[in-house]
Amino acid sequence: MDINILRQIAVVLGAVAFLAVCWWAFSPKRKQRFEEDAKLPFADEELTSDKAAQTRETSTGDEVGKKQEQGQDK
Fold this sequence. Notes:
Largest sheet: none
Helix content: over 70%
Shape: elongated
Number of strands: 0
Structural class: mainly alpha
Distance between the termini: 64 Å
Number of helices: 4
Radius of gyration: 26 Å
Order of helices and strands: HHHH
Oligomer: single chain
Strand content: under 5%
C-alpha cells in the first residue's frame, strides 16, 4: 500500500464525516431543539437582571457604602 492511497482514504473518510455532521445539524427533526438551545443564554440573562433589580431596590445606602469601602462593589 502506497502512502498516497492512505491519504486518499483519509480524505474520503474526512469528507464523509463532514457530510454526516452537516446532515445531522441541518436535519429538520432537530430544528426545534436547536432553536430552543439558541435562546438559553438570553433566558439566563433575563433571570439575572431581574434578581439584580430586586437587590438594588432592597439595599440601603449604608450597605452599598460598606461594600464600596471593602472593595466588593465592582
